[in-house]
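Standup notes, protein team

Yesterday: finished cleaning the Paramecium tetraurelia set.
Today: TOG domain-containing protein structure.
Blockers: none.

Input for TOG domain-containing protein:
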Amino acid sequence: MQISPKENPPVGIYDDLIINLDTGSIVQEIYREEYIPVQQIQRREEDAVFIDENPQIVLEKLMKLKDCHYKERLAFTKRLGELISWIGDSAIDNLNTIIQQILEDADEIKKNFIAQLEQICVLLKTKQNSQELIKQHVVKALQELLKSNNFDIKEQAGNSISIVAKELNERDRGNLILTQVIQMAHDDNNDENVIIAVKLFGQLAADFGPELSESFIALEILSKGDDAKQPIRKEAVLQLANIAKVLSKDFIKHRLIPFFSKKTEERTWQTRKACLDIIVRLAEQTDTENFDLITGRLLALLDDQNKWVKQHAYKQLGKYISIITKSENINDKLLEFYLKMNDSDIRELGIDNEIVIECALYFPAVLQVYTEKKWPQLSKLFMKLINHKDKSQKTFGLQYTCLAYSELLKVLEQLLQDPNDEIKHGAVENLSLFFDAIEESKRASLIDILLIIQKDQKKWRIRELIAKQISHLAQVFDVETVFSIILPVSTKLCNDNVYAVRKAAAKQIFELYDKFQKSQNELYFSVLKQNILGFANSNMFNQRQSFVIMCEKLMKYEQFQVDFLEAFINLGQDPIKNVRISVAKVLQKHLFKPKTSEKDGLFRDQTSIQTLWNLLTKDNVVLNSLNNKKYPITNQLKSQITQLTQSQVKLQQPEQPQIQQQQQQQQQQQSQTLADEEQQQESGSVPEQNQVAQNQEIMILEEQFEKSNHIEQNTTNIEQVAQQEEEEIKQVIDNTENVVEENNFEENQQNQIQLESELNEEKQEIENQQEQEQQQIEQKEEEDNSQNVKENEEKEIEQE
């Protein structure tokens, strides 16, 4: 691609960029890809909607939402739940006014409003009169939306009302929801209302209970299943699986299953296809006898004359076989149809090999149902799936098939040597599961696969997959194999060139630590500890960082305090910023993550950990890198860790004599207590009392020593704060001078941009005028041509 010299480059962000046409097409291609017109940026700024930071202004905007333009109304509606929770009770008091404006707005705004109702309902649940608020605002709005002429809005409102119904009591569900649904179900003039009502019957059956469902809701759905209109019958069939969860076994056997069997023989193929949509869920809720009846209907639909029904039946076949749990329900005819799924005539029923994909996806489940007795038949299908041209079938086929049989070893080797990386990734990802399926006596001979795979330095994603499975592999193999092979591989991966590989491997080292500790093999355990400490004492920062990541899960062991705590604390003062950040992240999880077991947060109360955390959080770079959303407690530290101002220092300085007076009074009281104790000793006390008095004297001296140290620390801190503030004042003065210069530079740039934008607007006006003139000329030419054509036709008619 080349730009001709005659063409002028477009005006945009790269206006000042000079491109030499002789340098090659690569630079020109980059220019075209990264070019963004100034006009496009201006349009984005004009289309953007900015929400004010003042909640009162936002509330006023919501109260007058109908006066805003469309994009503002849409933006506020999309974030309505978040805005109401942010504003508070004043927004809830005016919620009726806000909702009423939205209900009178466009359909797109109504759809976004329905999506926000669940969040609003959760907010209203936190209030005292939550039931009344939900009925007054949420349920009332949904009742209005169900009356809409737009089917999508009614369907979306129906889905939302089934969720809101769980927050109401039984009486309100009947009066507010069920009565309206019944009216919609008997609306003979509007088929959409009937379809929505049938769908709501199925969704609300669990909330109304088994008695009402059997006596009324199920009978309504069965009656709508015999409706004269096909869409209503189809929707009634789709709800059979939902109501079957609530109905009794007797009702399912005598009413539901016969109705389902009749619908699988209906003349319209859409209804038969709808039966296949629910056949798996319905079979899961039936007993052995009814399961066999449903299996018979599935076999009949697999030979259906309609192409779409037959295709859908084959797509449901693998999933249907996978739910078989009882040996009485196993049917060999299902397996015969399953083995045909890779045949050419069956593959042609689907699009993009979708039937073969379903076959490969459920192959392990089918194998588990039919067991190794049918493996000779299934192995042929399996080899066809492995050798399939489409890579997706191979990935799906091996994702779970390497769970069960050692005969798949040849297949594993074939897939590991496949040139396609996605297939190789699928094999490596399930490598630990493959080792689970193999007998313990044969596992050691296959562990060399790890050594071969992880040698390729170009395939870092494969090394990452291996690193994530270290803990699982350590559980599968014995101690000797873990020490001789898995430990060297793990240490190598912890020192990988790619950070993702190092991180994944370091997080799994705790499993090796746990295994060697439980094995009571001191040699293996000491070697592992030396390897871990070698990372901590390394001269390379990435190895020290790997040690910190290891400590995240090693801190769950009490032995950590003896083995690694000192090295971990030392790395909190590491000269490399990334290492300190890693230490702070590990400490943040250890200190503030909620406890899920007794091993979590073992060292939270230790002074060394607390002092290390305080030192790290004083560094703004480290503090800003922490995950404040997941652990919001650290947000409080940002407000607490603020430097003292000069006024605070002045206030603290006169407090020193008061502190000294209090300390003198305490010393006098302590001397009096000592004198009293001496008098008691002279009066003939027991030797045990002398020891107690001596211990008390030691405690008092220790307290005095700590207080004196505290005073010295306060004075030194005040002096340090004063020095820091002087340096900050100097920095502020320098920064102000720089800001003034930058502002002047920015003003000049803004003036230039304004001039350029004015020129661009003038150019646009000229171009628009030219385009309008051209359009007028073209219209005239078209009119003249049409007139000429008409005249020619009239002449031809006259001649005829």
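Follow-up from PR in the comments: The mean pLDDT is 76.
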